[in-house]
């Protein structure tokens, strides 16, 4: 804890150097948006708008360094990305649009828009270390300099911790949505060559998607929409490139579905293509088993060979078993040549990194010290 006399002196010094900005103005603008919404809800308007999802703990954000450093800012920042996505879904409504327009046209708002208000605490937090450093340079009191430097170190650590939490939370939410949208068909549906009597199907327990698509086990490196060339048709597919395997899925849309997924609950980090699939009640059905990166071969296709088939920007993905036999092949077409090159680069890089990790693990196993039998 900072001694209250030193804390008071620090806050005064920081305020003189413009750390807080126009605090009174920002609070007035904040109250216009929040209090107007509260007033409308007391009169039974916009009752379904969740005040916390939109503003989180904005009211309690303290501009002073006291107690748990940046604790309130961390709570706010962790909710920020979800709040922005929630706001975007609300802005599509006429009644919420009228509320926003009225607030933004208020003289006290000074033409500040709600997204600018919501992002302001993040900008303020990232400015703390630099401003504290400037104050430390100008300070002549040795005791104060020590205290300022200590606070700067704590703020920088808090920001680093926050960045890690935001990345973890974003990754966790994304994988949770992937578990919901990716469908894993059973063996007999995936490949008609295999006949399994109904009485024996209970024996074949597929691994659950929760364990395969777990943020603790793997990371999603790249993803996107491509076209798969089949013998009689072209198929829209969506590829997920993880750090240990590639997954080829078929996008299925269900535009006739009524009351589909709530758009306000869709993860903001999902691509627009996947967000559209979810909104339409669709899914991504796995076409074949995951392709381990050390069994994957990617090859570019010469345009001359594909022009007769109407294919452009094509490349080939092969799945080889441990005996280097090709057990699956996917002829893919990208929208542009640049997208094709990007996909091939991403896959090649992922394969290289995966193989290096595997080799490092093997080396560490062989070089690890062996315990003495006498111990």
TrEMBL record:
Residue ranges of every copy of the PH domain listed in the record: 219-352
Gene Ontology biological process terms in this record: Rho protein signal transduction
UniProt keyword Magnesium present: no
Keywords: Guanine-nucleotide releasing factor
Alphabetized InterPro entries for the sequence: DBL_dom_sf (IPR035899), DH_dom (IPR000219), GDS_CDC24_CS (IPR001331), PH-like_dom_sf (IPR011993), PH_domain (IPR001849), PKHG5/7 (IPR040181), SOS1_NGEF_PH (IPR055251)
A Pfam match: SOS1_NGEF_PH
DH domain boundaries: 32-172
Any one GO MF annotation of this record: guanyl-nucleotide exchange factor activity
Key word Membrane present: no
Source domain of life: Eukaryota
PROSITE patterns in the record: DH_1 (PS00741), DH_2 (PS50010), PH_DOMAIN (PS50003)
The name this protein goes by in its record: Pleckstrin homology domain-containing family G member 7 isoform X7
Organism name: Pteropus vampyrus (Large flying fox)
């Amino acid at each position: 804890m900072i001694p209250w006399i030193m804390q008071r002196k620090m806050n005064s010094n920081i305020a003189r150097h413009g750390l807080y900005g126009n605090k009174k103005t920002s609070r007035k603008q904040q109250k216009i948006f929040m209090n107007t919404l509260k007033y409308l809800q007391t009169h039974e308007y916009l009752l379904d708008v969740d005040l916390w999802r939109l503003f989180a703990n904005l009211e309690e954000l303290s501009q002073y360094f006291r107690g748990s450093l940046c604790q309130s800012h961390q709570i706010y920042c962790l909710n920020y990305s979800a709040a922005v996505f929630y706001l975007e879904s609300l802005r599509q409504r006429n009644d919420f649009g009228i509320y926003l327009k009225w607030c933004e046209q208020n003289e006290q708002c000074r033409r500040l828009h709600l997204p600018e208000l919501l992002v302001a605490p993040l900008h303020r937090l990232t400015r703390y270390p630099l401003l504290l450093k400037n104050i430390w340079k100008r300070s002549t009191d040795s005791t104060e300099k020590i205290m300022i430097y200590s606070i700067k170190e704590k703020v920088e650590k808090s920001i680093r911790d926050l960045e890690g939490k935001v990345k973890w939370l974003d990754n966790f939410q994304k994988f949770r949505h992937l578990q919901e949208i990716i469908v894993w068909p059973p063996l007999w549906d995936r490949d008609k060559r295999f006949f399994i009597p109904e009485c024996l199907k209970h024996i074949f327990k597929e691994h659950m998607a929760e364990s395969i698509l777990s943020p603790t086990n793997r990371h999603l490196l790249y993803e996107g929409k491509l076209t798969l060339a089949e013998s009689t048709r072209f198929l829209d597919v969506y590829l997920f490139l993880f750090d240990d395997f590639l997954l080829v899925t078929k996008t299925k849309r269900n535009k006739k579905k009524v009351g589909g997924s709530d758009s306000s609950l869709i993860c903001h980090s999902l691509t627009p293509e996947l967000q559209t699939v979810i909104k339409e009640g669709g899914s991504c059905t796995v076409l074949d088993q995951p392709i381990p990166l050390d069994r994957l071969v990617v090859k570019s296709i010469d345009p001359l060979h594909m022009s007769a088939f109407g294919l452009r920007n094509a490349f080939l993905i092969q799945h080889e078993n441990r005996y280097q036999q090709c057990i699956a092949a996917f002829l893919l077409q990208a929208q542009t040549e640049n997208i094709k090159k990007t996909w091939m680069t991403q896959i090649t890089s992922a394969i290289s990194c995966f193989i290096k990790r595997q080799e490092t693990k093997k080396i560490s196993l062989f070089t690890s010290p062996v315990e003495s039998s006498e111990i």
